[in-house]
Amino acid sequence: MSKKAYPLRNLSLQAIYDKLFAFYGPQHWWPGETPFEVAVGAILTQNTNWANVEKAIHNLKKHGVLSSQAIHGLPVDRLAALIRPSGYYNIKANRLRAFIDYFADNYKGSMARMKKANDKTLREELLALKGVGQETADSILLYALDKPIFVIDAYTKRILSRHGIMETSASYEAYQQLFHNTFDKDVTLFNEYHALLVRVGKDYCKPEPKCAGCPLSNS
DNA sequence: GACCAGGCACATC
DNA sequence: GATGTGCATGGT
Questions:
Q1: How is domain A35-144 classified at the architecture level of CATH?
Q2: Is the CB of A88 under 7 A from strand C?
Q3: What does pTM read for this prediction?
Q4: Which residues in chain A, range 158-187, keep a C-beta under 7 Å from any nucleic strand C atom?
Q5: Which nucleotide's C1' sits nearest to the alpha carbon of A38?
Q6: CA-to-CA distance for A160 and A56, rounded, in angstroms?
Q7: If you write DSSP's letter for every residue of A32-56 in order, what string do you get?
Q8: pLDDT tens digit at each of 219 positions of chain A
Q9: How many CB atoms lie within 10 A of CB A133?
């Protein structure tokens, strides 16, 4: 636990959700037009500001290559140039290609077809891809495929640890289990809750916290 | 100029 | 299993 004192309440996961939703209202995530775009965004946003991801996706759209077939036919260095604003562009170009190869080979480039597959199988398949870790896999499962899987990210860990709910050092699985054991598996709730955590994280729960005015703070 | 952002793989101990 | 490092842009 952080030794620094934050002006915090002793809040349950349910209470945190209620307060965030009351304060912010629905977040309408994921910010993407199609399930495929959501999956691409999930890879591009790794350790990256969303505004930069939007620039990269805009480039893909502008050049008419935001589809699995189009990206598949693109030389990797050309793809890298288009997604440049999202950072780590060489690595991410290869990660996108790896996902799209898998997507084309196994589901014929159809998110609808992919959605019909078993949740656990899909998660294992995604995690087997180079460049898809737990957060990216779960983001695709929840936000592109409507699977009831909670997404854990840096904000989730930071917020829950500062509220004394779980140590920062606890594993991804431990955090995820906490949500899965606390709530019924509800796609709408999981969608909204993770989005709200990101929102309050951006507004108040940065590495250097700004607790004044935070809906989870006493101050 | 420093810090931060909706991670991940890989090397090393 | 824990810890360190490379990957990179763009906004504040």
A1: Orthogonal Bundle (1.10)
A2: yes
A3: 0.96
A4: 169, 171
A5: B6
A6: 31
A7: -SSHHHHHHHHHHTTTS-HHHHHHH
A8: 444 556 566 789 999 999 999 999 999 999 999 999 999 999 999 999 999 999 999 999 999 999 999 999 999 999 999 999 999 999 999 999 999 999 999 999 999 999 999 999 999 999 999 999 999 999 999 999 999 999 999 999 999 999 999 999 999 999 999 999 999 999 999 999 999 999 999 999 999 999 999 999 976
A9: 12
